[in-house]
Amino acid sequence: MGEGINDYTQKLIDLRRHMWMAGVEVELRRLIWQIAVVGKYISAKIHEANRKQAGFKNVYGEEQLSLDRASDEILKNQLGFSGFVREYASEEQEGIVKLGDGTEKYIVTADPLDGSSLVDTNLAIGTIIGIHRESVFATGRATLVGALYITYGPLITMVYSAGKGTHEFVLNREGEYMLSEESIKLKERGSIFSPGGLRRDWTPAHRKLVEQLETSGYKLRYSGGFVPDINQIIIKKGGLFTYPALQKSPQGKLRLLFELQPMAYLMENAGGAATDGREDILNIKVEKLDQCSPVYIGSKTEVQLAKQYLSA
Ligand code: FDP
Ligand code: ZN
């Protein structure tokens, strides 16, 4: 197995068949499929949600729509039923939730509904998932065996990697995730950039990097949703997303475990890279669940450039 995927007409390949042909181990492919199914439930919730019912706070003190909680609940319950997950760590939970009897193979991390502040604007939002074999208090490189995100936009798409390439699927009208792009390969450099944080709070080194990108003709693309912003770089095959260290928050805003590790895994498996400015995101050890890190993620040339500026 692992060969012959390209022998088929891509349009005819659904997610389960793709993972089977790609030789993804049986439990992992069942788990990924189940998470993709949860994406359908979450998207249904988004559609039925009344945006005027906002008003909870999550454990990190942010505004939280009830939609975040609903998404988290659905995920947690489905993973509990799956029989493959022993621990669930979510941005919406205070600590790690034990599922099953502890003998299950995987630990799953989730940002169940990233970019929820965009719900009322009708921009794309997403779900981010990391799948770990061992305790999450390690480097992503040591423990991650898979990652995926789901984008809820005009189309619902799912991008996953189980270590061999990064692949995109589109949910069709029949409710099947059909392969739309296999083994996505980023170019060495792109032409778009997404800079988070306020310019006045940037460090001098970061400001110089952004000026360099602007001078080189990079076009600004920033929606305020991490999933669609990363998805744009992956699907356009290059560019740079950054949420840097800020004067008042030297660790930036984005969470290492729930947001950055899965995206770094997907990006590396598509031939891109991700760094905090010095170290690969996947080489940073997770010490606590809500740990944040600055991030520069995208095609290799821009990530390398970021490293040069940041270490200067
Ligand atoms: P949000 O606060 O809406 O959940 O997860 C954090 C996040 O969104 C990312 O999706 C997004 O990339 C970033 O924050 C946007 O932050 P800014 O509003 O500071 O630009
Ligand atoms: Zn998030």
Keywords:
312 residues; Fructose-1,6-Bisphosphatase, Chain A, domain 1; binds 2,6-di-O-phosphono-beta-D-fructofuranose; 2 domains; 8-stranded mixed beta sheet; D-Maltodextrin-Binding Protein, domain 2; alpha+beta; binds zinc ion; globular
Structure description:
With 312 residues, this protein is an alpha+beta fold. It has two domains: 7-181, Fructose-1,6-Bisphosphatase, subunit A, domain 1 (Fructose-1,6-Bisphosphatase, Chain A, domain 1); 192-311, D-Maltodextrin-Binding Protein, domain 2, CATH 3.40.190.80. It is 32% helix and 23% strand. It is built from eight helices and 15 strands. It has helices spanning 15-21, 26-48, 66-82, 140-143, 204-215, 226-235, 256-269, 300-311, and strands spanning 56-57, 63-64, 85-90, 97-98, 106-114, 125-132, 144-152, 156-161, 167-171, 177-181, 192-195, 219-220, 240-243, 273-275, 295-298. An eight-stranded mixed beta sheet has the order 4-3-5-6-7-8-9-10, sandwiched between helices. A five-stranded mixed beta sheet has the order 12-11-13-15-14, with helices on both faces. The protein has a two-stranded antiparallel ribbon with strand order 1-2. Helix 1 (15-21) packs antiparallel against helix 2 (26-48), helix 2 (26-48) packs antiparallel against helix 3 (66-82) and helix 5 (204-215) packs antiparallel against helix 8. It starts with 14 loop residues before the first helix and ends with a helix. The mean pLDDT is 92. The chain binds 2,6-di-O-phosphono-beta-D-fructofuranose and zinc ion (ZN). Zinc ion is lined by residues 111, 114, 226, 259.
